[in-house]
Amino acid sequence: MENTKNVVIVGAGLVGSLNACYLAKRGFNVKVYERRPDIRTQQHVKGRSINLALSCRGREALKMVGLEETVVHNGIPMRARMIHDLDGKRHPIPYGEKDQYIMSVDRRNLNELLLNAAEKHDNIEFVFEHKLVRCNFESGQAEFEGPDKSIKTETADLFIGCDGAFSSLRNLMMRATRLNYQQEYIPHGYIELTIQPTNNEFAMEVNYLHIWPRNEYMMIALPNQDKTYTTTLFMPFKVFESLQTEDDIIEFFKENYPDAVPLLGEGHIKQTLITTKAQSLISVKCYPYHIGSNWLIMGDAAHAMVPFYGQGMNAGFEDCIVLDELMNKYDLDFSQVLPAYTEKRHTDATAICDLAMYNYIEMRSAVNSKLFLLRKKMDNFLQKLFPNSWIPLYTMVSFTRTRYHECVARRAKQDKIIQYCGYIFLLLATGGVVVMVKGVGTDHILTTVTDRFSQLYSYIETTLHKFIL
Q1: Which has the higher per-residue pLDDT, 283 or 49?
Q2: Is the Cβ–Cβ distance between 303 and 315 less than 8 Å?
Q3: 94: phi then psi, degrees, rounded to nearest 5
Q4: Which residues fall within 8 angstroms of residue 3, CB to CB, at 6 or more apart?
Q5: Average pLDDT over the chain, rounded to whole?
Q6: Terminus-to-terminus CA distance in the chain, angstroms?
Q7: pLDDT at residue 440 tops 60
Q8: Most buried residue among 116, 179, 258, 290 by CB atoms closer than 10 A?
């Protein structure tokens, strides 16, 4: 093909494998380098294994390469949070409308599926156990070192780093240009446990993301196809470090997660926390995402985030859509595509990194608050009242492709409107009291209140269209 280009992708994880499929569909020759062995040949895979929550953005990205149906078939719908109170009571908080749900997806299975799908393309080649060691950003060359210390040199029209939060390509780019970089480790780490099936059935309600919010720390559980639950304990490292003995561990669980102890099993809890080191969680922001017209970073390499909004994978997959759209817009002119990608995606990536950080507070603490539940009910009420104008923040982020920064901006405007409405309701209530004190008849009171509510409705509707849309 006249427009055939050679592309090298660094990283064969979720975003790298999916990106390879997108680029191969264009007829590009794609070579994917991965520093780890092929995970399909490994019994155990080192690294993060927190289950994934697939939502609208990720599904749309998979759909565009014909993989959505297969992935959804292998996932489990989660229609609500299931909150586990300290006294053992449970209550659900729906994510959205009845037809809106996120999917629990196994990370390794999804990665293997994407690798298999990519290998079906004749113009994709994988090279495992080779790490990026050097780049010549002017000549468009990169060197990869194999397990025997041999070097492979690649020349390509485009190099894309999809190699995670500790990206080798990003680190080399930082040495070669004025690339701003910010990372933040939160003081909380995580350890993963497993809830086994009970009598060959799920041990808890299945179509939920189970959360044990305990303010300073929390535990979550996501269902798997084999009827287990991947259960992740998040809490400050100092708390992990304080649990020195088996008795300390069991006492801590019985005090904070009493209903989970029989589900997990005391033996499993003791063994896991004694033998497993808590893993860290990092948030990464940087700018720009490119150098010249040959070098680009995507996914966690550009915008790693803590996992508390369930958008890390979804944002990375959406990166593939955005790049694909810009390639169409600029007719494969990488000198225009890459700067446009940086400018468009950086604003949204920053917004979702911040939202993910905020949502940790919501998940471990705010869900226990009556004000939080009141706001959820208010959002749902206003959405039904103004379905074309009022969309809750979580719905915008998880069930639409509204740009992340626009989601944040709209939420800020919604907060102002609710504040104004509170003032108006207060005035209405005050007016009603004044009317009754004056001894005005009941019919007149009803007429007055009805008129004022009609005015309020008109005001809200006008304000919504003016400020949110």
Answers
A1: 283
A2: yes
A3: -60, 150
A4: 26, 27, 332
A5: 89
A6: 44
A7: no
A8: 290
